[in-house]
Amino acid sequence: MLSAHPVIFKGGKVIWLIDSPDITDIRFGKTLTRNWYSGIRIFNHKYNEQSFIASNNNLLIKRWNSRSYQANIYGLSSIGFNLDSEESMYNLGLHADWENRRFMVMHMLQYCSYDESIMHNFRLAFTPKIKGYKGTSVWLIGQYSNHQIDNKNYEKILPVVRVLKRNYLVEFGGNGKDTFLTLMVHF
Prior knowledge:
Layout: E1 13-19, E2 23-33, E3 36-45, E4 50-65, E5 70-82, E6 88-99, E7 103-112, E8 117-126, E9 136-149, E10 152-165, E11 168-174, E12 179-186
Antiparallel strand pairs: 1-2, 1-12, 2-3, 3-4, 4-5, 5-6, 6-7, 7-8, 8-9, 9-10, 10-11, 11-12
């Protein structure tokens, strides 16, 4: 499972770890402009046990802001190589989200050239209690993922809990068979 990293404040840096049933992914990066995040990622696709190192770029294509919600569309790209075979690879994707202070919906579609796989991720979320920036915010998320690889379809539904406190994010979840963990720090 891959999740898009939103473009954070200009000059902001991030360290990000994701461990999911599909992928283990470590990212380091910086927002270079108000619309562009760039960095390095090292990741392992668990279905084929292949490891990669790549550049990582997220481009904010469009943002809608209103008093009661925000929505975004991001373009995603990674270019790099397989650490085992040194074969080149790339990922391309789109991420779209909509959120207000109580609810969130997100969809991401991503293609990986190395194994010609396609990944879909969809999330519905809500927070039972709205908090300010200085408070600790808890979100309850239903996450569906679909990874199409080698004419096989791997589907998963996971309940996930997201905890936000200022510039720290922790997500954890599981369904009895698969687990999910995200750790992210902006500075």
